[in-house]
Specification:
about 450 residues; D-Maltodextrin-Binding Protein, domain 2; about 10% strand; 15 strands; 5-stranded mixed β-sheet
Amino acid sequence: MMKKLISLFLLATVSLSACAAPQASATPEIPSAAPATKTPQPEPTAQAVSTIQVQPSALKGVQITVWTPWYGVENDLFKTLVREFNQKNAWGIQVTAESQVNFTNLYDETLKAIQRPDLAIALPEHALEWNDNRLVADLMPYVFDPTYGIEDVDDIPFIFWNQDQFGETRVAMPAQRTARFLLWNETWGGELGFDAPPNAPEDFEQQTCRAHEALTKNDSPQDDFMGGWYVDTDPMTAYAWLLAFEGGVLEGNGYRFLTPNNIAAFTFLRKLSEENCAWQSAEVDAITAFTSRRALFITASLQDLPSVARSFSAQQSRDEWRVIPFPGADEDALVVYGSSYVVFNSTPEKQLAAWLFLRWMLEAEQDARMAEATHLFPLRTSTLGLLGDYEKTHPQWAQAIDLLPQGELQPQLASWRKVKVMLGDGFDHMYRVNVFSGQVAAILAQMETLSRDISK
């Protein structure tokens, strides 16, 4: 099977066109006509009628509260956008933003709150759990409403769109999306004899081991255990490696970890460490190791890319580097994840007000400002037209955009909130206690048992 080499956002319309409202056919070309003695009048057309039983006048003065997980730059920009919406929106809606500092605190506070927010920016698995408890509004009627809906729903790439679609219910809308990538030092790789990034696991092994071998031959003995992949035990890194080996964590509506492909994935990674082709150290961080040629590969999220660029500049390095997916034998792996807008059940007026605010946030102008500030994916294809200058000055970000059609979803289960933490802990345990490659099946068996216990 050929690997996915699909151009920018090519698949954005897949699976959306079936849901989108019918579109009018293209206007036919009007031929030249002789001068008319009387201008024909258009036939009156029926005005679209909203299915949401709220009159626009009822929105005037409606106040809603939004809880966010952000602080710093993201929080400051969001509050700026809130002020702009409050000043400019035609309905007179007033939004108040409150930071809960992080996702975990936001989740906990939502469970404890006597008065929940009207809108929250939370993780999709949190939205699924709240949906199971009948706390959130189904956004499907709003999305396709003829008056208040999104006209160009197919402008949102399917990998963002589908995460919050659960059966016939839309439990949320995308707020931010990122992914975890491998970073490859292209210049150093070329000097080692490689003219392309790894295209399969065996290629990855060859490149990491050759980088390690190169450092064993330099004049710095303290580098002798370095050179290949700087091990990263983030849950999304572990999950991406499983997918690269055509494994995963799901079976039906539950979890399955102990599979041949998962064993092959973790065995491969542990053998890299046993061969000193993968390493980690408390003495040097991943970004510094990468930019100082002590790691040919590291793992990073989209928002980390500016820090990597600054580190290369601080080291006065002219090395070129690339963003790549996790190499698989048939298909490479890339897991896309992030936060979503969740509307809580309240009054029809407050729910519509919350929807109109999040719809405004998803417009290309606001989307572009958020992407530039956070360095994350733009949520709409059309937003890219506003980010041309940013794309030119952030080439690795542009590479990440090109890889987006290869993206895969996180598990759409509320229990993923706990299971992903367990996955990261188990993956980290393999390296922390130096588990031998022949013992990874036991680790996966423990993961499977624990995942079933915590997802009951």
